[in-house]
Amino acid sequence: MSSTDRRAFLQAAGMAGLFTTMGSEALAQNAAAPVVTEKAKMPEVAARHSLRFGVIGLDHAHIYGMTAAVQRGGGKLVSVYATDQKQIAEYRAKFGDVQLARSEDEILEDKSIQLVLSASIPDLRAPLGVKVMRAGKDFLADKPGITSLEQLAEVRRTVAETKRKFAVMYSERLEVRSAIYAGELIRQGAIGRVIQTVNLAPHRVNAPSRPAWFFEKARYGGILTDIGSHQADQFLYYTNSTEARVVASQTGNLAYPNYPQFEDFGDMVVAGNGGTGYVRVDWYTPDGLATWGDGRLFVLGTEGYIELRKYINVASGLSGGNHLYIVDKKQARYIDCNEVPLPFGPQFVTDIVQRTEVAQDQKQALLAAELVLTAQKNATRPVLS
Asked: Which of 69, 65, 95, 60 is CA-nearest to residue 80?
């Protein structure tokens, strides 16, 4: 008998011996209990106020979701500024024949505009946000809203001086229905005190469709700064951490040598005063997957745990996304979250009108940026043979 066959035989014999010595009670404890299936229900958050807003920068398609969210909240789109005619045509096809501003200043100087949205090239967002706030308006940036620690310091100074909002659309929590419902369950104490979050966030690179800046680290900030910002936001929110630090981080370009400034893998460990977190981000989604990424979130509590399968549930027979699994002291449940409302838009418009922070806590939004910027700056490189 070869060493491999001998090892397999001994392992099998050991398992057989284990089962013969286990009593019926122990076996019953290991039997799978039926999973209860239900649909999540939450009340709709109605638009209570209205405001006028403008858009500067259409360089990322996230601007469509951002615009739609503010419109759901009662926002009226006044004007847009961009220079790429294709982007302008596509945006107008979606949102109507909106007025095209002749410059950024035309929007900044319009006293009727209260809010400016931007999905410009990432390194341009924070400087624009500073100008917007100094013009007496609030700002909503696509993520990453900030690409350097120097930008972050300037943003914080300007927020303190102007009392305006620098918000960031962390859409993987704010615009994902299962993520919203997970927050509600945690708020209710469904899994006890949260101890840890684990975020796995693969993305599809689809290189031929990407603009040149997508592969330039100075423009997008690095993989942790960019897509890792979503995960830092979730870590802070679900653990309710108001203070946090980076324990370790690494980034690398392991599969795209033809794009030397690109990073396709990154991970980090973070610790806060409400829990710990692990984040892995990558650009390795294979073509065989039916969507852009099999994003998952695990939230561990003292009395249970939650898993989100946000965008797809591979080989499960369940179509679409927004799948939530929760296991507590009583049972295991599968919850379909596709009917959960999206409250960010109405809450954010109300925040602007009433100067509250229900939709997004300003300090937490900027702390999420600080975590990924610090992790990015101090990241080591993976050592692979």
From this structure: 95
Both 185 and 330 in one domain: the answer is yes
Token readout for 300 is 């561990």
* pLDDT per residue as tens digits for the range 213-260: 999 999 999 999 999 999 999 999 999 999 999 999 999 999 999 999
* Structure token digits, residue 278: 């692990």
Domain end marker among 169, 191, 218:
169
Q: Are 51 and 349 in contact (CB under 8 A)?
A: yes
Strand order in the sheet with 323-327: 36-39, 332-336, 323-327, 304-309, 296-301, 194-202, 275-282, 265-272, 244-252
Q: Which domain holds residue 292?
A: 173-341
Do 308 and 333 sit in the same domain of this protein?
A: yes
- Can you give the pTM of this predicted structure? 0.90
CA angle 165, 121, 287 (to 5 degrees): 115
pLDDT digits 0-9 by tens, 250-280: 999 999 999 999 999 999 999 999 999 999 9
